[in-house]
Amino acid sequence: MKRNNAFTGLEAAIVLIAFVVVAAIFSYVLLSAGFYASQRAQEVTYAGIKQVSSIMYPIGSVRAGITDDGLLNFAEFGVGVPEIGQPQDMTGLRILLSQSSGLPVNLGNTNAPVSPTEAQSGMNSWIFRTDKDWTYIDNGVPMLVPGQSGGVVSSPIVHPGDNVRIRILFGSTNVPKSGENFTLEIMPQFGPSFLLTKTVPQR
Fold first, then answer.
1. How far is CA 70 from the centre of its chain?
2. Which of 134, 138, 159, 199 could form a disulfide with 116 if both were Cys (CB 3.0 to 4.6 A apart)?
3. CB 119 within 8 A of CB 170
4. What residue segments make up the domains of the chain, in order of their start?
């Protein structure tokens, strides 16, 4: 009668090695999946933080000027970028004007106003002022608003912690009147928009 102990031990060793190899491969797959999931979670977290911090917010009160006819001549307000935010480019800013009647109107920033206090005839527009003087955008290029002798064009980039003044210049159409409500929707290049709703005071 033959003894097969040696063959049985070899078979057990082969089976053990196979289990170890399979377990190692399975562990590698699990670790790879875990690393990938962690990386994706990190990217989503960073994207969420960037989105939340990429905002512009109103600063201070709204100033306004009214003509002798009771029409709104201009409205001025400040906006800022938080310290943890990212720079905002004013060339990508959009402003919508809404009133009690009619559809929202997109206020332009590509036509030179007559002066810092007067819009081009018939045109509603907006200008801005950061560290220098009142500026408008002409085909993506910041330009000095006329009527400012020796003025310097404001930088269109608003950095974190900085603020900018925006002035809405009303022309002869779609102009809010005394006692009427109007809403300005400020839509920055990055992040959510915000609303400013005001009532034109009585003269």
1. 34
2. 134
3. yes
4. 1-53, 57-199
